[in-house]
Specification:
- The complex is a heterodimer of chains A (321) and B (738).
- Chain A has ten helices and eleven strands.
- With 321 residues, chain A is an alpha/beta fold.
- Chain A folds into two domains: 262 residues, von Willebrand factor, type A domain (Rossmann fold); 40 residues, no CATH class.
- In chain A, helix 2 runs parallel beside helix 10, helix 6 runs parallel beside helix 7 and helix 7 runs parallel beside helix 9.
- The longest helix of chain A is centred in the C-terminal third of the chain and has 26 residues.
- Chain A is elongated and about 85 Å long.
- By secondary structure, chain B is an alpha+beta fold.
- In chain B, helix 3 runs antiparallel to helix 4.
- The two termini of chain B are 40 Å apart.
- The chains are: A alpha/beta (321), B alpha+beta (738).
- Chains A and B meet through helix 1, strand 9, strand 10 and helix 9 of A and strand 2, helix 2 and helix 13 of B.
């Protein structure tokens, strides 16, 4: 008896048609009023929700420092002067807008989608949602399509109508070709002048060490790095039963595989990759979110944003204490 | 390799079916676009080559099964040399020891040449080979019961054995010897067989005209298990002129005589050489004593002469009379010939008349006895060697037929079955029977018991009793008999005898069966062609069936002079069968009775080469004892001797005549050699000038479809096991064959 998966393979000729809309209001509604806040200090020109590297007139107290000539007398902490008989100036954190760069991997492996939408379509949808979310926070949003030979780059801008351009670029790119993710990311490191948020949407297939090295460069430059790893459920379970030819989506090659004989070995190799990747991301202090295409995108994003917001709240409370 | 049903080979392209299915199933497999190829590649790197090997093995098994099935249906035959592994060879030396091998020319000797060639061949043999020796003259005789190992000891033993062998009077029968050699099974596991024939290549030795026998030889060779090679070593002398005088035939006018009867001996002597022979002397010997000599004038090549002498033998007994040439030529063995004569005071014959004889039938016995010189039991001053006894048919129960040379029924009446059986045995063992039909004969009984549809003693049935009203009509007269038949040579002389005055009043119509009409020998017939006397060979004896009685009741023949001549000649003719048992052809059985003086002594048979053999002792229904010896293939003088304490008490000679073709020196011509090569299905382009020509025969072909079916079963079983195992390996469940 054929499994539903086998039927899906036959019906879809191996690839899903990706008919899901790239910008789904239903998904957006699930995000509600959630915000994507940078965990690290970022540079911005406008006041916003993110801590700025500049101390300013924001209400969030930062620290006391001894008074120096030329300081604004309005900033003197009279209460502390009464206690210590010394002049201290009160300093506050400046909140600024975020410059976020959504990096979408459009390599051939992202084309895969069998019983669900393709990973590329999932990445497109996630990018659109995040872009919308960030622009709604008056953050700057840029887009970089990496992973294959053609590198598309859209400069981060905080304007609301910038989303249209981001979506336009996203929808005009098809995932294909051999993955050159690490090289493409390496090129991007020079383009981001200000510290900001880098969101990578990819299956991260390839050499983990090289990816780690490139992402580490972002972290060294002060960027907050968020990796949304998008995987298909078939890649996680390898549920095939019948012998078949597996066509490589990145290279022009196919191999004849008996799934029953290779399943165990494959799953071991895949799990080892996931463990290596997770360890690498932890090492560089970035965030890794693994998303499977069979899960609702809204739920996945909302879950992560809730978790991130909770972490942010904890950090703030810890800082006040 | 050849095929019995080669048409099935047309199905061989079916072997492509598994390949096509393999390729088709490969194309039919799903193609899955896959992204995480790096993990799949790592996982499949290890098992891919093994899996491919398994698939190729499965494919090979399926193709092999189809090939095995198609080949098995085509029924291939494979030469057995393909699986011949042992280097040891079974060597058969076929030695031609026929008369022509005794030829010498000055210092040259064919036999010495043969021995030298045999030694050369023995020297070539390896110690693992086994050697058999077959003497090719007179049907072939194995020299050793088992093969002799070709090591140094065995070779010395073989050379010693062969040095004691001499040429014989026999004829070389090389075709029979080859057949015998190929028919003989190997000792133990079949080994390649090498047959080496040492011969002087006489044309008559090869029997090239026997094409059916050569085909049979070829068939046998093809079906033999071990590959066989044949070599022919030519030992003939070609350089010198052939000179030879041979006694080709020796005849006696009578072989059974009374003491002091004169017997005329006649010898035919031929110059078979290539040069004229000078005058020579012919000696006549009785038991190796020269009795007389005769001069022989010189003969031209291929000219023959007949020399005669008359001898009288005084004593009773069996005597070997020999004719010997006193002249030195190249083949000494063929310069003499012998004939055995029986000298006896009387040879008993039995006249049987009816139990209730009337005057006429009784007179038949009286007439016959008178003819032989007897009046009742009393002999006349002159009487024949045949001593008559007269009995009625009722007294036959007490008669022992083997005591008589001939039994004569003057007017055949009804006989008991037991008597008839004893008569059949008597005739079979060489006795003579003369049956005259008459008024006592019952037609139906005769046809049933004596004719028995051609299987009985009589070669003819009787149909009607023919009455002749006018005896001057041809039907009532006797046609003068033939000059050709030995029994009627004298009767045919109508100028001296009165057979033309014989008249028949009644006689039985003798009717041979349709198939035997031309085969039945007629000694006498009526003027209108009705057979009156016919003869039949029954076993070793002879039977005469006469259509009228021997008395006067149906004919006036007993009143004529011809009657006396007829009775004597026919008794001589009939009893010649019994005396002919002393003068035999090659292969005929020697049958002897113990003489009275040696009845209780142990007999032995001495062969021409001086070897002694035991005799087979037979008890006949008559209660008498007969001695038999059947291995008389070798021509020459045999003697049954009776010894008492190493002293010969009695000796009975038996002479087996030789084939005179061995005296003719006819070496295989080029044409004959081509025939020989064709008979062996060989390439005739071999070097004819070489003394030794080697003929490599084709190894026989063996059917192997049984093995192929086993291979097919093995392939199918292997395919089932492997596919089942692969199914389990790849899907985790057993493959259902339903």
């Amino acid at each position: 008896m054929r499994s539903r998966l086998d039927n899906a393979v036959l019906e879809s000729d191996g690839l899903n048609t990706n008919s899901a809309p790239i910008f789904d209001p239903q998904t957006l509604s699930k995000l509600g009023r959630l915000e994507l806040i940078a965990k690290t200090v970022v540079d911005g020109f406008l006041s916003g929700k993110h801590r700025s590297t500049h101390k300013g007139g924001c209400t969030d107290f930062a620290e006391l420092r001894p008074y120096a000539q030329g300081d604004d007398l309005r900033q003197l902490d009279w209460r502390h002067y009464a206690k210590s008989d010394r002049y201290y100036v009160r300093q506050f954190d400046d909140e600024t807008n975020l410059q976020a760069l959504i990096v979408a991997d459009a390599s051939g492996s992202m084309q895969f989608g069998m019983s669900t939408v393709s990973k590329w379509r999932y990445a497109q949808m996630a990018s659109a949602c995040l872009g919308h979310l960030l622009l709604r926070q008056r953050d700057s949003v840029g887009l970089a399509i990496v992973g294959n030979q053609t590198l598309e780059y859209v400069r981060p801008l905080p304007r609301a109508n910038h989303l249209a351009r981001v979506l336009n670029v996203l929808s005009n790119v098809e995932a294909s070709g051999e993955s050159v993710l690490a090289d493409s990311l390496g090129e991007l490191t020079g383009r981001l002048k200000r510290r900001g948020l880098v969101i990578l949407l990819s299956d991260c297939f390839g050499e983990v060490a090289r990816l780690k090295h490139v992402l580490e460069q972002f972290r060294v430059r002060g960027h907050d790095v968020l990796i949304l790893q998008i995987l298909a459920p078939e890649e996680l379970t390898f549920p095939f039963r019948r012998e078949a030819f597996f066509q490589d989506l990145e290279l022009p090659r196919q191999i004849q595989v008996n799934p029953n004989t290779v399943r165990k070995q494959y799953l071991q190799e895949f799990q080892r990759f996931l463990d290596e990747l997770r360890q690498a991301i932890v090492d560089i202090g970035a965030d890794l979110v693994t998303m499977t295409t069979d899960r609702d995108l809204g739920d996945s994003l909302a879950g992560y944003l809730h978790k991130r917001a909770a972490q942010k709240t904890k950090q703030t409370a810890r800082a006040r204490v | 390799m050849s095929f019995l049903n080669g048409l099935f080979l047309a199905a061989l392209p079916l072997v492509a079916i598994p390949v096509l299915i393999h390729l088709y199933r490969g194309r039919q497999r799903d193609v899955i676009p896959w992204g995480a190829m790096q993990f799949l590649t790592q996982a499949t790197t290890k098992g891919r080559s093994v899996q491919r090997l398994e698939e190729l093995l499965l494919l090979a098994l399926r193709m092999g099964a189809i090939i095995a099935l198609v080949l098995a249906l085509a029924q291939p035959l494979i030469r057995s040399t393909w699986w011949a592994t042992s280097n040891a060879t079974e060597v058969v030396l076929v030695v031609d020891n026929s008369l022509s091998m005794a030829r010498t020319a000055g210092e040259l000797s064919v036999w010495d040449q043969l021995n030298e060639n045999v030694r050369d061949v023995l020297a070539e043999l390896g110690s693992g080979d086994r050697v058999h020796v077959l003497l090719a003259s007179s049907g072939g005789e194995w020299l050793t019961a088992e093969g002799i190992s070709a090591d140094n000891t065995g070779k010395s033993r073989l050379e010693a054995i062969l040095e004691n062998i001499e040429p014989t009077l026999g004829k070389a029968e090389l075709l029979d010897s080859l057949q015998r050699t190929i028919h003989t099974e190997s000792e133990g596991k079949p080994k390649p067989r090498r047959i080496v024939v040492f011969t002087d290549n006489q044309t008559n030795s090869w029997q090239l005209e026997a094409q059916a026998a050569w085909r049979q030889l070829e068939h046998t060779r093809k079906n033999s298990i071990a590959p066989t090679s044949i070599e022919i070593v030519d030992c003939s002398i070609r350089e010198s002129e052939f000179n030879n005088l041979a006694v080709m035939l020796l005849e006696a006018s009578r072989t059974a005589v009374q003491p002091n009867d004169s017997i005329e001996f006649s010898a035919s002597i031929e110059n078979t050489g290539q040069a004229s022979s000078p005058n020579a002397t012919v000696q006549w010997l009785i038991d190796e004593k020269v009795i007389a000599t005769t001069a022989l004038e010189g003969l031209q090549p291929n000219q023959s002469a007949r020399v005669k002498t008359a001898l009288r033998l005084e004593d009773s007994g069996q005597f070997a009379v020999t004719c010997r040439l006193e002249w030195q030529d190249q083949i000494a063995l063929d310069q003499q010939a012998s004939v055995v004569i029986e000298v006896s005071d009387h040879l008993p014959v039995l006249f049987v008349h009816d139990a209730q004889p009337d005057e006429n039938t009784k007179s038949a016995s009286v007439l016959l006895m008178a003819t032989l010189g007897y009046e009742g039991e009393k002999s006349q001053p002159w009487h024949s060697v045949y001593h008559p006894e007269s009995v009625t048919s009722d007294e036959l129960d007490e008669s022992t037929f083997s005591n008589y040379r001939c039994v004569v029924f003057t007017d055949l009446g009804e006989l008991d079955t037991d008597v008839l059986d004893r008569l059949s045995e008597f005739v079979t063992s060489g006795g003579a029977l003369w049956v005259a039909l008459g008024s006592q004969t019952d037609r139906d009984t005769f046809n049933h018991t004596w004719y028995d549809e051609g299987q009985g003693l009589s070669p003819v049935a009787i149909t009607v009793l023919k009455s002749v009203d006018d005896t001057n009509e041809p039907a009532g007269m006797i046609h003068p008999p033939s000059h050709q038949h030995p029994a009627t040579i004298h009767l045919a002389n109508t100028t001296q005898l009165d057979i033309d005055e014989a008249r028949l009043y009644e006689y039985w119509q003798l009717t041979p069966s349709q198939e035997e009409t031309s085969a039945v020998s007629v000694l006498m017939e009526s003027g209108d062609g009705s057979p009156l006397v016919v003869e039949n060979y029954f076993g070793q004896g002879r039977v005469l069936v006469q259509a009228f009685p021997l008395g006067l009741e149906w004919t006036n023949l007993p009143q004529l002079k011809s009657y006396v001549v007829m009775v004597h000649d026919w008794l001589d003719y009939l009893t010649a069968g019994s005396t002919a048992r002393y003068n035999l052809s090659s292969g005929q059985t020697i049958v002897a009775s113990s003489p009275a003086e040696a009845e209780f002594l142990t007999p032995e048979l001495v062969t021409p080469d001086g070897n002694e053999h035991p005799l087979v002792v037979d008890e006949t229904n008559d209660g008498t004892t007969r001695l038999r010896f059947s291995q008389t293939h070798q021509p020459g003088m045999y003697r049954v001797v009776f010894k008492s304490r190493d002293e010969t008490v009695a000796s009975l000679p038996f002479y087996v005549s030789r084939d005179t073709s061995e005296s003719l020196w006819q070496v295989l011509s080029d044409e004959d050699r081509e025939k020989l090569f064709a008979a062996l299905e060989l390439d005739a382009s071999a070097d004819r000038s070489a003394d030794t020509s080697q003929i490599q025969t084709i190894a026989p072909e063996e059917p192997i479809w049984g093995s192929l079916l086993l291979v097919l079963i093995a392939f199918l079983a292997g395919e089932l096991l492997l596919s089942n195992w692969l199914g389990r390996q790849r899907s985790g469940v057993a493959v259902s064959t339903t």
